[in-house]
Write a structure and sequence with these properties.
The complex is a heterodimer of chains A (about 110) and B (about 120). Chain A has about 110 residues and is an all-beta fold. Helices cover about 0% and strands about 50% of the residues of chain A. Chain A has no helices and eleven strands. In chain A, strands 2, 4, 5, 6, 9, 10 and 11 form a seven-stranded mixed sheet that branches. Chain A has a four-stranded antiparallel sheet with strand order 1-3-8-7, with no helix packed on it. In chain B, strands 2, 5, 6, 10, 11 and 12 form a six-stranded mixed sheet that branches. A four-stranded antiparallel sheet of chain B has the order 3-9-8-7, with no helix packed on it. Chain B has a two-stranded antiparallel sheet with strand order 1-4. With about 120 residues, chain B is mostly beta strands. Chain B is globular, with a radius of gyration of 14 Å. Chain B has no helices and twelve strands. Classes of the chains: A mainly beta (about 110), B mainly beta (about 120). Chains A and B meet through strand 4, strand 5, strand 9 and strand 10 of A and strand 5, strand 6, strand 10 and strand 11 of B.
């Protein structure tokens, strides 16, 4: 069973550009989560999906951020008009759902906005 | 709102020493789960343990052990006979068992360095 995979692993962009990240969850996991981790901090929840439905969004997810999971499998996270403050590690996790179930994480996409 | 505090920002110990990582949490809910994750330099968060709020039994897995004390809202992690491969950032996390809640709240992490 392959783990959660994220692509790309690293992204460098200029301020104002749009970027898109992809996450492929563990197969048959119907929950998919996005977290953001800045330097020296723990991951912070952004949003999560149950199948293709986006069930919760954090207030951290500004209007410039959009996440999709169109067929209930992989997910994309897009950031429009990037700002230097968007520089962070973006982590994806998946699970079979429910608070008690373990969220398995990918290796993340490190975004640097110049 | 819930909160997780890991007061130790960085710890360094010499290989083979024992080390304890502290985790204190805050919540008004009575039903929740606590987790520990390891984040090596590669960046991936690796799951280590899950404990529910009704199970205060301590757990041992090889060189790892966890001490859960509800009375002090603590869930501490001890590594016995540390090894260089244990060097990583360790995160404690909390999730409430409310229906529909699936958001992990993490502490700020403890960077552990094992000196050969």
């Amino acid at each position: 069973d392959t783990g959660v995979s994220q692509d790309p692993r690293h992204k460098i962009t200029k301020r104002g550009q749009n970027v898109t990240f992809r996450c492929d969850p563990i197969s048959e996991h119907n929950r998919l989560y996005w977290y953001r981790q800045t330097l020296g901090q723990g991951p912070e929840f952004l949003t999560y999906f149950q199948n293709e439905a986006q069930l919760e969004k954090s207030r951290l997810l500004s209007d410039r951020f959009s996440a999709e999971r169109p067929k209930g499998s992989f997910s994309t996270l897009e950031i429009q008009r990037t700002e230097q403050g968007d520089s962070a590690m973006y982590l994806c996790a998946s699970s079979t759902g429910g608070a008690k179930n373990i969220q398995y994480f990918g290796a993340g996409t490190r975004l640097s906005v110049l | 709102a819930q909160k997780v505090t890991q007061a130790q920002t960085e710890i360094s110990v010499v290989e083979k020493e024992d080390v304890t990582l502290d985790c204190v949490y805050e919540t008004r809910d009575t039903t929740y789960y606590l987790f520990w994750y390891k984040q090596p330099p590669s960046g991936e968060l690796v799951f280590l343990i899950r404990r529910n709020s009704f199970d205060e039994q301590n757990e041992i897995s090889g060189r790892y052990s966890w001490n859960f004390q509800k009375s002090t809202s603590s869930f501490n992690f001890t590594i016995t006979a540390s090894q260089v491969v244990d060097s990583a950032v360790y995160f404690c996390a909390l999730i409430l068992s409310n229906f529909g809640n699936e958001k992990l709240t993490f502490g700020t992490g403890t960077r552990l360095t094992i000196i050969p």
